[in-house]
Write a structure and sequence with these properties.
By secondary structure, the protein is α/β, with parallel strands linked by helices. It has a seven-stranded parallel β-sheet, sandwiched between helices. It is globular and about 55 Å long. InterPro entries: NAD(P)-bd_dom_sf, Sc_DH/Rdtase_CS, SDR, SDR_fam.
Amino acid sequence: MTTERTERVIVSGATSGIGRAIAIRLASRAAVVGVMGRREEAAREVAAQVEELGCKAEVLQADVSQPSAVEDAIGAFVAKYGGIDTVVSSAGIALTGLVNDFGLDAWDQMISTNLSGTFYLAKYTLPELIKTRGTFTAISSDAGTQGAQEFAAYCATKHGVNGLIKAMALDYGASGVRCNAVCPGFVETPMADQLLDGMSTEEVDYYKKSVPLGRFARPEEVANVVAHLSSTEAAYSHGMIYALDGGATSGYYSAPA
């Protein structure tokens, strides 16, 4: 006996890395996945992978830093599919630098994408999530729970995302909308590769050795956590700041020689 798929999903930042893995993972159970991203061609490639799993895919070309683009994309999705059950905010960028050297344009870009982008996605999907008693999951970072050298702007945005999710959990729990944040450490993605390319061998070794499990996460491991938190199996998981970092933020760790 098969169960009819009814879940309607939107994933931002779905064109690569963690967002792509989430879109594909949720396609295994959803009726339709809205593949949201800035690059239409990349979104269509992910949409094709989603459809290979027997799930409809809707390409939602939108830059999350632009509120009107997010609103229009959400409106078009709802008009076509009648509502939204699951939202995952995964779009994000990482730029490094010391505060006194960090460009104002770069700061604005970080805020508008990582923090405001999460807010815009929440603002325009929450009316539908209230109707369906759905879920909103944000991909944050371990940099949202602690500091990191030369990651001041990134840390600021991810701390903001965690605060936003906690407040949303308080505001919308009574409406049945569950809100959670997942905080990975380094994940094997193109964005992480770019960051590591700019580091010395010693810096890369430091980050690897600071993880008690001895490795970085894989995108699919983040996707599995999101799949759980947005499912009925996690019906009492709400307002969580879920550490997915191999134990790196558990406390001081001295790696074995």
